[in-house]
Amino acid sequence: MGRKWPFVSLVFVLALSMLLAACGSDSEEDNDSNTGSGIELGQKDLTLPYVAWAREMPVSYLYAAILEDVGYNVELKQVEAGPMWSSVADGSADFFTGASLPVIHGEYEKKYGDDVVKVNMNDEQTLNALTVPSYMEDVNSIEDLQNNKELGDSVDWKITGIDPGAGLMSNTEIAMDEYHLKDDWELSSSSESAMLAELKTKYDKEEPIVVTLWTPHWAFGVWDLKMLDDPKGVYGDGDQIYTVARKGFKEDAPAAYKILEQYTEDPDMIAEELMAPIFNEDQDPEDVVREFIDNHPDLIEEWTKGVK
């Protein structure tokens, strides 16, 4: 009988050791989760170019704040659409959030597509079109602009556009050719903010105006607007919005890339909680983004899962 005790003791010690090891492993995993370990940050200094459009600017600020919260240093650079694409393609910038494809940024994708990576589709359906206030009851299609002397004279035969490097402007030039508008109409380039200021002035007076516009956009929540029918399909059936990164970004900044992959977007939420306060109420973008982050902890946790 006495000889059996050493064997039993040995079995007990081995079992206890295995149990403690398992508990220790679980504790380490819990501790890792609580202390924020996970995918490595890698390169900590990031450059994020953006165009000051209704969605791209606030979403870029949102990305920057989330990435900085997990340990990155993010430099935001306001640029035009061409430099936004080219800087990521040549590696002088790391990623941007607003590639509108396949239509609006189609030419940029042809030029730079081999040098960038489409990380994530943020919005499945956007629309681009010539747009007018709904009180312009007799104007419902681009065809209604053809030889329309009364309308043309009332707006000085001008379509009010945005910045000249925007893909939407290129598409509008094509539309003017397709609908034979160029003999009479002129596409005026300015900036999104200038276009919206003119739209507001005309809208408040219920005067006619034709602008280039897209969805999602906060303007549709503030003013009663309608997009003109495009029977020739120049603007396509709509675009998708992608986050695009330089090649090698996934290897250089794996945690940031993971966040970009896990990001999801509700267009209505972005329009109401980010676009409108910044553009319509003139609030500071950083303050608006911080309030958004504070109001949606579950969403932020989903986007940073495995990182934070």
Distinctive features:
5-stranded antiparallel beta sheet; disordered N terminus; 308 residues; alpha/beta
What's a quick, concise take on this entry?
The protein is α/β, with parallel strands linked by helices and 308 residues long. The protein has 13 helices and nine strands. It starts with a helix and ends in a 5-residue tail after the last helix.
Could you characterize the architecture of this molecule?
The protein has 308 residues and is of the alpha/beta class. Helix content is 46%, strand content 19%. It folds into 2 domains: 45-126 and 239-303, 3-Layer(aba) Sandwich (D-Maltodextrin-Binding Protein, domain 2); 127-227, Glycine betaine-binding periplasmic protein, domain 2 (D-Maltodextrin-Binding Protein, domain 2), CATH 3.40.190.100. Strands 3, 4, 7, 8 and 9 form a 5-stranded antiparallel β-sheet that branches.
* Count of domains: 2
Low-confidence stretches: 1-36
CATH topology of the largest domain: D-Maltodextrin-Binding Protein, domain 2
What integer is the average pLDDT?
A: 88
Fraction of residues in helix: 40-55%
Distance between the termini: 56 Å
By DSSP, the count of extended strands is 9
CATH top level assignment of the largest domain: Alpha Beta
The CATH superfamily label of the largest domain reads Periplasmic binding protein-like II
Number of helices, where a helix is a run of at least 4 consecutive DSSP H or I residues: 13
Task: Name the beta content range.
Answer: 15-25%
Give the class from helix and strand content and strand pairing. alpha/beta
CATH second-level architecture of the largest domain: 3-Layer(aba) Sandwich
- What coarse outline follows from CA principal-axis ratios? globular
Instruction: Please state the CA-atom Rg, rounded to the nearest Å.
Output: 26 Å
Q: How do the helices and strands follow one another from N- to C-terminus?
A: HEHEHEHEHEHEHEHEEHHHHH
